[in-house]
Amino acid sequence: MTNPTDLRTLKAFVAVAREGNVTRAAERLHLTQPAVTLQLKRLAADTGITLFRRTSAGLELTLEGALLAAKAEQVLAALVDFGQTAGHLATRLRGKLRIGTIIDPEFTRLGAFLKALVESGPGIETELRHGMSGDVPEGLRRNELDVGYFLGDIRDFDPVAGLSPDENLFHAKELARLTYLVVAPPSLAGFVRGQDWPDLAALPWIGTPPASVHNRLLGRVFGDLGVRQNVVASVDQEPSMLAMVRTGLGLSLCRESLALHEHQSNGLVIADRVQIETALSFVCLNARAKDPTIQFAYDAITRIWG
Length: 306
Hints:
The structure is a single chain. This protein has 13 helices and eleven strands. The model has no long low-confidence stretch (mean pLDDT 90). 46% of the residues lie in helices and 21% in strands. The protein has helices spanning 7-19, 22-29, 33-47, 63-90, 105-108, 110-120, 135-141, 189-192, 197-201, 213-225, 238-246, 256-266, 292-305; strands at residues 52-55, 58-61, 95-101, 124-130, 147-151, 170-184, 205-207, 231-234, 252-255, 269-270, 276-285. The chain is an alpha/beta fold. Helix 1 (7-19) crosses helix 2, helix 1 (7-19) packs across helix 4 and helix 2 (22-29) crosses helix 3 (33-47).
């Protein structure tokens, strides 16, 4: 490659890689579709790489394109990091920290974390954005979040599998290991006890959106077994899932502490032969891990969780 790549070309490439569609990418960048197409053609010509392949759903990165997109993400994140670091230094680390929060604040020790953060960096203003676990890596990628809590394996959201820790898009600090159990209404007790995943898959389930950790955990289990989960209804909040289980509608995955509480308080049945282990982590973009404000956040979360 002889010609240097400018930032406008990198931004156009990353936008199309994220959206899988030139029109949507152009709208996001406030450019015309021909302008974005020209940037892609120029990058492909300069690198000698086929960046995308066309599918019925739009544009899909080739393997080489995905590797290049990961590097482009790092370059753009480094540029953002440079500007934010300069801004923090100019204002003595006075700024806003946008935090992605998930599930209940008691479980994530959110209050204690915010208190520790204020004590560490009194000039830092925090902004909380609550959502599902899968929303956090997307918020980090889009520069809508600085840090956030995450359930599951953050490597699932890296653009290319098999990267080394230094090459991963995200930096994660594991806070705790936790177990998810399957709960069912009492009416299905005879169909749940003593059953393994393939038998449970055929029973009615309360489903969740793709951004939910429940969806990712169960999707991997059933996908590996080659069986299909029988989803009869979908919700996006854990309390709603449990409420639907109580009404007798179907099964749900939930944290062990909640499953035990529901068993004791409301008589829900716990499947006794299956469980899923996962982790709660605190995450940011790898390229921004040394940002002073983010380092303050990691120092604070470490004091709370150890």
